[in-house]
């Protein structure tokens, strides 16, 4: 009787492992399918931030503000950060 219980427990443990692995594989596939749309969304956000930054820098430049180069560098750095972070995240997880 004890041997039968141990055998049933062992087989149940093996079957449970297979279902867990299939679930993990399915979750991994679902998560990786979101990377392409997320990367495109980050690129679009970077484009909008770049346009807003360009307008702000232009307004500062035309008003004669001496702090124009600092503002331009910060907006340019923000756009580069968005693009690079999207590319690195995509290459790291895929």
TrEMBL record:
Keywords: Membrane, Transmembrane, Transmembrane helix. It comes from the Bacteria. Pfam families: DUF4134 (PF13572). The chain crosses the membrane at residues 40-59, 71-93. InterPro entries: DUF4134. This is DUF4134 domain-containing protein. It comes from Myroides pelagicus.
